[in-house]
Amino acid sequence: MTCSPASDAPETDSSAVGPPRGLSPSRYDPDRAGLDALVAEVGETTGTALPTYRVDQLWQGLYRDLIGPEDVSTLPKALRGPLADLLPPALTEDTRSVGDGGDTVKWLWRLADGSLIETVLMHYKDRSTVCVSTQAGCAMACGFCATGQMGFDRHLSTGEIVEQVVRAQVEAGNRRVSNVVFMGMGEPLANYDRTWAAVQRLHGDLGLSARHLTISTVGVVPGIRRMATEGLPVNLAVSLHAADDDLRDELVPLNRRYPLAELADACQAHVTATGRRLSFEWALIDNVNDRPEDAARLADYARPLGAHVNLIPLNPTPGWPTRGSSPARVREFADEVNARGGNATIRRTRGTEIDAACGQLRAERANADSVNAEGSVPVAAPRRRGNGSSR
Ligand code: SAH
């Protein structure tokens, strides 16, 4: 698999709406106006103009009852088939893994063109959170990230993003999925318009509070600045991992284009415009970014922005065999950041035994497939300590 350098990141496409080229719309792609047009089309082909309330029924099925056209019992049977054909589901379950005594569910979904993406549902005492992907693969080329190691396949459509939340809510049953983190595969702000359309759909049509939506980015500065102008105050998380440009250039290659000073300005613009607290993600890598001077730089960078820092030991991946920091070092590092006026906490990990860290399930699947193709028996993956996309 190839890793595209960050400078080739397909940002030019980030302001495109509608499904990516060659992909037909799925059931959560059209907005309300799009659905009006689609139902009118079906009316024409069946020779009877359909009243508006038919669209209302379909819309309620999709967004209130979370069912497909084939199951909307208020629609005449003769309509359900054609509508279901026009609006197929985007996600087919390839693998589902359950961990943490049922509290973590991770899916590997197959998309219409065969691409594979991951979604993780996490139940906590007080809430349920779903972690969604925004791209198949990723072009940002962060070496330590399993998805970064795969390279970029394509952007996800709005419907493919929204349906991940819907399917997680269906799985969760009467536990409400109240929080969505855009921390799965891909860089959300490199697929800006489709991601933002998904944010609006989740907020406006599925009724999720903007305060419970979090977009995580490697630091796509123009995207952060756009978010600041949107008028919908969602949370911003930035995957920082280093607070000096030399080290960050290495760990997060996009830093070469948008260095730390520019990133801080954009973050400040977001904080000022939305009033939301900023958070930084920091994966602690043994002897790389967990030294006392790293803690000092991080505290100095985060303090003026009022940012909260989430610390997590790096989860080793096949393409980056460096170790995560020891639990003792993680605690010391948190203390060092906090002693300098930073605000750091250690993130609880989730889904470790089911490889619920960004891109891992798909990477395991690719390994198993290639081993199978050679006719050998797949071996169990070693147990890993990990981050589990938890929140
Ligand atoms: N592209 C976005 C969102 C996806 S990654 C972003 O970078 O923010 C979600 C989070 O998982 C990021 O903070 C990322 O840095 C982190 N991550 C990726 N690989 C990891 C690993 N091997 N160990 C720990 N955290 C990792």
Describe this structure in words.
Helix content is 35%, strand content 17%. The longest helix is centred in the N-terminal third of the chain and has 15 residues, at 32-46. The chain starts with 31 loop residues before the first helix and ends in an 18-residue tail after the last helix. The strands form 2 sheets. A 10-stranded mixed β-sheet has the order 1-2-3-4-7-8-9-10-11-12. Strands 5-6 form a two-stranded antiparallel sheet. It has helices spanning 32-46, 52-63, 77-86, 146-150, 158-172, 192-204, 221-228, 245-251, 260-274, 292-302, 327-339, 360-373; strands at 92-99, 104-110, 116-123, 128-131, 135-137, 152-155, 177-182, 213-217, 235-239, 279-284, 308-313, 344-346. It is of the alpha/beta class and 391 residues long. Bound molecules: S-adenosyl-L-homocysteine. S-adenosyl-L-homocysteine is lined by residues 140, 144-145, 183, 187, 216-218, 239, 281, 283, 312, 314-315, 317, 357-358, 387.
Quick structural summary:
With 391 residues, the chain is of the alpha/beta class. The chain is built from 12 helices and 12 strands. It has helices at residues 32-46, 52-63, 77-86, 146-150, 158-172, 192-204, 221-228, 245-251, 260-274, 292-302, 327-339, 360-373; strands spanning 92-99, 104-110, 116-123, 128-131, 135-137, 152-155, 177-182, 213-217, 235-239, 279-284, 308-313, 344-346.
